[in-house]
Amino acid sequence: MQETNETVFKILCDGVAFLNHQLPDRRKIQAEESTVLLGDDGELDSLSLVTLLVAVEEGLENEFGTNCELMDELSDGLEGRILTIGAVKDFILRKLG
Questions:
Q1: 8 bridge partner residues
Q2: Secondary structure of 7-19 in the HEC alphabet?
Q3: What percent of the chain has pLDDT over 70?
Q4: What is the pLDDT of residues 15-54, one digit of tens each?
Q5: Helical spans, DSSP H, in 1-97
Q6: What letter does residue 25 receive in the DSSP assignment?
Q7: CB-CB neighbours of 69 under 10 Å
Q8: Mean pLDDT of the chain
Q9: At what angle do helices 2-22 and 85-96 cross, to 10 degrees?
């Protein structure tokens, strides 16, 4: 399980790097579990969040051979909630079971 945890976090970090490559310097985000993506102190607008999640979905499919649709499932019930990189990682780990 620890190896899967590390692999999923690396895929998230790769997604952040992909996103940051497209963002101006002042909008780049840190690849840390505590980074708030969405919520009161969220770093991303909706387009940036979609870009990140699509990059992560592709990384998960390449690594694990599974189609993991994050945007649809994560968006349910997000209204008013805080979404961090760590929360996305935990969500993915639960899906991978």
A1: none
A2: HHHHHHHHHHHHH
A3: 92
A4: 999 999 999 999 999 999 999 998 778 889 889 999 999 9
A5: 2-22, 46-64, 70-75, 85-96
A6: G
A7: 12
A8: 89
A9: 130
- Output the pLDDT for position 78: 59
Q: Which residue has the tokens 């909630």?
A: 81
Q: What percent of the chain has pLDDT over 90?
A: 63
Residue 49 neighbours by CB under 8 Å, 6+ apart: 37, 38
Entry pTM = 0.90
Q: Which residues make beta-bridge pairs with 66?
A: none
Please report, for the chain, the start and end positions of each structural domain, with discontinuous segments joined by +: 2-96
Say how many C-beta atoms besides its own lie within 10 A of residue 58's C-beta.
15
Where does residue 97 rank: exposed (0-12), middle (13-18), buried (19+ CB within 10 A)?
exposed
If we measure between CA atoms, which residue out of 5, 51, 7, 57 comes closest to residue 29? 51
